[in-house]
Design brief:
Elements lengths: L2 E5 L2 E3 L5 E8 L7 E7 L6 E6 L6 E3 L7 E6 L4 E6 L8 E8 L16 E2 L3 E5 L2
Parallel strand pairs: 2-11
Antiparallel strand pairs: 1-3, 3-8, 4-5, 4-9, 5-6, 7-8, 9-10, 9-11
């Protein structure tokens, strides 16, 4: 079974940057679309960005468009989320998740078609 582990979260000032990483093990990521989600307290998972299996197609939530960049390196079995110009409303637990059934990704609220999830990494943007 695919295993995902997120890292790179932390505490940052508004306008700062963080780079989140998602490392896969047991299986390679070649056939998986990957999504990044975030969850604020009392809220459902919000799809932030996703990338298809090849890395050629990406999607972004309107709230992060122009500030976040998703990328992947299948040779390293890694997916990244570069977050720039961070705002307090970006605060939450960030998860990466894999969709084993689609080559093109979908931005969804909740878990959608994503079956494999990491444990999350906390991102806190001060106000």
């Amino acid at each position: 079974q695919l295993q995902l582990v997120e890292s790179g979260g932390g505490l940052v000032q508004p306008g700062g940057s963080l780079r989140l990483s998602c490392a896969a093990s047991r299986l390679t990521l070649d056939y998986y679309a990957i999504g990044w989600f975030r969850q604020a307290p009392g809220k459902e998972h919000e799809g932030v960005s996703c990338i298809d299996n090849s890395g050629l197609s990406t999607k972004y939530a309107d709230s992060v468009k122009g500030r976040f960049t998703i990328s992947r390196d299948n040779a390293k079995n890694m997916v990244y989320l570069q977050m720039n110009s961070l705002k307090p409303e970006d605060t939450g637990v960030y998860y990466c998740a894999a969709d084993p059934y689609s080559t093109m990704c979908a931005l969804v609220s909740g878990e959608g078609p994503y079956d494999y999830w990491g444990q999350g990494t906390q991102v806190t943007v001060l106000s």
